[in-house]
Amino acid sequence: MDNVLYFDFEISRNSKKIQDIGAIHHGLEFHKNNISDFFKFSENSEYACGHNIFNHDLKYLYDQIGNHLFFKRQFIDTLLISALLFADKPYHRLVKDYHILDDQPYANDPLYDSKLSKQLLEDEINKFGELPELLKNIYFKLLGGHKRFKGFFSLIHRNDSFND
Are strands 4-11 and 47-50 parallel, antiparallel or unpaired? Predict the structure, then answer.
């Protein structure tokens, strides 16, 4: 899945501006607060994946910079896919176990969160692969064209994880 960029933004509570960016792409890591550098880092990605990106990261990015080529790629929100495929779980937030080792238990690390999103997407793809073909096709027919699910179904279809 070299064509997937995993990313996370930390947003200032007061200014509502992006204050830290973490990303992974092609095995490389990005961690700084520079949107222009982030766009260069993400240039060759076809998909962009993160956790709760539709209601959080993409909203603040759009508010800060407006329409940009970055928005032309397909997006995968692991929060939405988690709720769909792991419906028996009571919550779907990222488990940030690095807080246990951190002196600042409420500080977030967007690079590490990008890594968690990558792992969660891999788990979601594996879980989808375990579903009966009929259920896979039902999910695809119902959600495959929806803006918030289209990226996921495009990615797994391209990787031959299921058949129409």
Answer: parallel
User: What whole-number distance in Å separates Cα of residue 28 and Cα of residue 43?
Assistant: 13
Q: What SS3 class is residue 109?
A: coil
| pLDDT tens digits in sequence order for the chain, 164 residues long | 789 999 999 999 899 999 999 999 999 999 999 999 999 999 999 999 999 999 999 999 999 998 888 999 999 999 999 999 998 886 656 655 554 455 554 568 999 999 999 999 999 999 999 999 999 999 999 999 999 999 999 999 865 544 44
Q: At what angle do helices 150-158 and 110-130 cross, to 10 degrees?
A: 60
Strand partners, 21: 9, 32
Asked if 124 and 81 touch (Cβ cutoff 8 Å), the reply is yes
| Of the candidates 41, 72, 46, the residue with the CA atom closest to the CA atom of residue 58 | 72
Report pTM: 0.88
Label residue 128 exposed, middle or buried (CB < 10 Å: 0-12, 13-18, 19+): buried
Q: CA-to-CA distance for 87 and 84, rounded, in angstroms?
A: 6
Axis-axis angle for helices 133-143, 150-158 (nearest 10):
140
